[in-house]
């Protein structure tokens, strides 16, 4: 089972208001509820802090809801998303709630990690879009105090199958643009399908790789902290190639590095085929190879077009990622 808590706070009675956090939380929740094909995914609860609900997300409420998220969670995949202010204190960084003050901003990021590390959940994914969010999971006693904070390599403690993705380093602020957090805008594009792998899976690792590439060396730097035995699928998107076609790889290639020679019969004539006709076995194989090539699983010498390779009796072969899926198919692991 999968459940998630998404929190977005725009309105802060005692500090500067924000403009995209509520929209961020709502958009993340909407994508998490359903996979791309419409099937159910996470059961999501949303907490919003708006001007019309100025006292809605208090420290007490957020702690209560986090407790509910992580309680009774055996065999569950959990996800927590937060967009709002982040604050720094002498005791570490906090997620700022609407009743926060300078000395007591809200919920400690260390308390959040304590809940995740101590839960019985199968996996826990934490995504934070707030200033100083990279401090989450860092244990003060393990940090090298002889080095200035902005130059330290943080030391975090996570149990197995906990993944943390943050919008910034421990000492960095984050930005908003065009109605969303800069980090979450890219995150949403990844969840919508930009971060899918060949099988259509969107994992925390793939999502971070997608998000990270959007930030240069001079911008806020998203962080990933993870301790994994296997990646958790956060959402199912559209696969690059149907898994049934991947399972056919050993039928066309006797070995992973085998080369298959084409002939003019593979390209054939009379395309597109009339309704109800699929062409000869060679033509069907040619079309299959074309789909593999579109998914970067098959290639030719010098990258030549399949049409000319067939006419000239050339060869096709699997790329390294194609060989990887060939091996999975051979072992019936797909």
TrEMBL record:
Q: Which GO terms describe its biological process?
A: proteolysis
* Membrane-crossing residue ranges in chain numbering: none
> InterPro entries this protein is in?
Caspase-like_dom_sf, Pept_C14_caspase
Gene Ontology terms for molecular function:
cysteine-type endopeptidase activity
Q: Where is the Peptidase C14 caspase domain?
A: 2-229
> Would you tell me the protein name for this molecule?
Peptidase C14 caspase domain-containing protein
Species of provenance: Cryptosporangium phraense
């Amino acid at each position: 089972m999968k459940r998630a808590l998404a929190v977005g706070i725009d309105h802060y009675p005692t500090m500067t208001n924000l403009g995209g956090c509520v929209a961020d939380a709502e958009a993340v929740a909407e994508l998490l509820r359903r996979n791309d094909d419409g099937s159910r995914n996470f059961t999501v609860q949303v907490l919003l802090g708006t001007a019309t609900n100025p006292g809605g997300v208090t420290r007490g409420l957020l702690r209560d809801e986090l407790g509910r998220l992580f309680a009774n969670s055996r065999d569950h995949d959990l996800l927590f998303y937060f967009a709002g202010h982040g604050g720094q204190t002498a005791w570490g960084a906090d997620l700022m709630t609407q009743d926060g003050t300078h000395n007591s901003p809200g919920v400690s990021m260390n308390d959040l990690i304590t809940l995740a590390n101590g839960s019985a959940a199968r996996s826990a994914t934490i995504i934070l879009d707030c200033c100083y969010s990279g401090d989450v999971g860092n244990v003060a006693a393990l940090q090298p105090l002889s080095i200035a904070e902005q130059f330290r390599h943080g030391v975090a403690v996570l149990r197995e199958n906990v993944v943390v993705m943050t919008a910034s380093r421990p000492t960095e602020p984050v930005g908003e643009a065009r109605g969303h957090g800069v980090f979450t805008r890219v995150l949403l594009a990844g969840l919508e399908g930009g971060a899918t792998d060949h099988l259509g899976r969107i994992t925390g690792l793939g999502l971070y790789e997608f998000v990270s590439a959007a930030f240069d060396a001079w911008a806020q730097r998203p962080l990933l902290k993870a301790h994994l035995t296997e990646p958790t699928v956060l959402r199912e998107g559209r696969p690059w190639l149907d898994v049934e076609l991947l399972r056919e790889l050993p039928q066309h290639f006797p070995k992973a590095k085998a080369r298959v020679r084409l002939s003019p019969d593979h390209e054939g004539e009379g395309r597109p085929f009339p309704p109800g006709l699929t062409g000869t076995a060679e033509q069907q194989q040619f079309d299959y190879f074309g789909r593999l090539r579109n998914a970067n699983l098959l290639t030719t010498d010098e990258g030549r077009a399949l049409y000319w390779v067939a006419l000239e009796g050339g060869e096709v072969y699997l790329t390294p990622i194609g060989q990887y899926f060939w091996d999975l198919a051979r072992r019936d692991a797909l």
